[in-house]
Structure formats: structure tokens, C-alpha cells
Write a structure and sequence with these properties.
This protein is mainly alpha-helical and 79 residues long. The longest helix is centred in the middle third of the chain and has 15 residues.
């Protein structure tokens, strides 16, 4: 069963785990040292955890945990 819709800090914590740098809700993925491989791993993990698969393009354009959390919420709402 998928977890509840994440708050931005939960996504930031996930980024911290994969990037090896502390991430906050409005931090930029690439400024934190994010790479395409790390992005794909995070996208896969979020799909497993939250039941919503984001496109690579949408993930990179979102850039911050806060915006990614919004995309997951929208995906769950079917919008």
C-alpha cells in the first residue's frame, strides 16, 4: 500500500538520502549535486513509496522537493 501524500520535507529527506547532502523544501536538485542517475533512483523510489510515477522531465522541471510533492499530490488526485 502506498504511503500518504508526502509533505515537501519528506521528499527533501529522501533527496538527502540519495544525494548525501542535507536538502530542504525549496532547495534545487542540481544545486545540491543531483545527477541524472540520482534523479532516476529518486523517481523510482517515490513511485514505490507514493504510488505515483513522475516523468524524468517533470521531476527535473520541478527542481525542488516542495514542487515535487505538489506533483505527487496532483498525480494522486488524477489531475
Amino acid at each position: 500500500m502506498a504511503r500518504p501524500v508526502p509533505q515537501a520535507q519528506a521528499i527533501a529527506d529522501l533527496w538527502s538520502e540519495y544525494l548525501g547532502a542535507e536538502a530542504k523544501e525549496n532547495d534545487d536538485f542540481f544545486a545540491l549535486g543531483g545527477t541524472s542517475l540520482a534523479g532516476i533512483k529518486i523517481i523510482d523510489r517515490m513511485a514505490d513509496d507514493y504510488g505515483v510515477r513522475l516523468s524524468v522531465r517533470a521531476f527535473y522541471l520541478a527542481q525542488t522537493p516542495a514542487r515535487v510533492a505538489e506533483l505527487i499530490a496532483q498525480g494522486r488526485a488524477g489531475t
